[in-house]
Amino acid sequence: MQSNSGRATALVLLGLCSQWQSVLSKPAVLRGKDRIVHDEVLSEKPHDDSLSHDYDHEAFLGAEEARTFDQLSPDESKARLSKLVDKIDGDGDGLVIESELKHWIKQIQKRYVLDDVQRHWKEYDMNKDNHISWEEYRNTTYGFYIENEESEDGFDYHKMMARDERRFKMADRDGDLRMTQEEFSAFLHPEEHSHMIDIVITETIEDIDKNGDGAIDINEYIGDMYSPNDDAEEPDWVRTEREQFHEFRDKNKDGKMDREETRNWILPPDYDHAEIEAKHLVFESDINEDGKLTKQEILDKYDVFVGSQATNYGEALKRHEEF
Ligand SMILES: *[C@@H]1O[C@H](CO)[C@@H](O)[C@H](O)[C@H]1NC(C)=O
Ligand SMILES: [Ca+2]
Ligand SMILES: [Ca+2]
């Protein structure tokens, strides 16, 4: 993720999987380093249409369903897409418009969060009382480290556990130290909940702020995404990030990002992944450019919306070669 484009462009090009959105059986700090959060993640696949439409497929179908479509013949794939189009066309006028697509993509996102919560629920609710207590969460996530205090890898879990506990207490709105499914959803996906935004900002700053002044200066900002290599010249994307920091991130020009500036960085106020993706899908398939998609326009570009054996031919071939 930190390769060539840096976060500013990554923001536009990629559906980023933030550290708060991925698998929680790993302690928080090990969950990856991408900082920018917007809506729920659409896909972890890079959004580069010259490579494939995998990103679009996952945004449009969800990761699991996208994999199912990849196994279908083109005809089956189109037949199923045709049924989906009827569902997406909310007012049933036979045309799909951007707002209908956006609504659909948001539903796919919501389903992803719900599935994620349910998938982890059983793992943590050990006594099956339909609540996850802090103790259950702690034992499941950190039990191994607690029992092997002097573990060989010297991994210091205390900090992460304290951080998870703090987040847990923030999500646990009624303060009974047990999470309902809704509270657990806020814990797993804090960026979706306004009462969790403060803690998302706090955790981000803590991660990056090395000198402990509670703000992010330019060296900390760059250091978070790039480790200099003595021999190599600083890559262009790092230089771009430096400019971004001074021009856009540090709005009051005091040389560092405070909480408010950090918030604008990781949760840009006017950025909506679902809307951008909906626009993109319309742009790709609206052949007569009237801003509305007929079913035929969508089916003609079925490879943009969904996969099939045909669109994944290259990948299937690769898999085959592995044997
Ligand atoms: C958590 O682990 C401790 C120590 O092994 C144990 O005493 C306690 O009962 C466990 N709690 C839960 C809720 O599983
Ligand atoms: Ca500042
Ligand atoms: Ca059209």
Automatic annotation (TrEMBL):
Organism: Eptatretus burgeri (Inshore hagfish)
Pfam family, one: EF-hand_7
GO MF annotation, one: calcium ion binding
Subunit structure: Interacts with PCSK6 (immature form including the propeptide); probably involved in the maturation and the secretion of PCSK6.
PANTHER family referenced in this protein's UniProt entry, alphabetically: CALUMENIN, RETICULOCALBIN
The protein's name: Reticulocalbin-3
Keywords: Calcium, Chaperone, Endoplasmic reticulum, Glycoprotein, Golgi apparatus, Membrane, Metal-binding, Repeat, Sarcoplasmic reticulum, Secreted, Signal
Function: Probable molecular chaperone assisting protein biosynthesis and transport in the endoplasmic reticulum. Required for the proper biosynthesis and transport of pulmonary surfactant-associated protein A/SP-A, pulmonary surfactant-associated protein D/SP-D and the lipid transporter ABCA3. By regulating both the proper expression and the degradation through the endoplasmic reticulum-associated protein degradation pathway of these proteins plays a crucial role in pulmonary surfactant homeostasis. Has an anti-fibrotic activity by negatively regulating the secretion of type I and type III collagens.
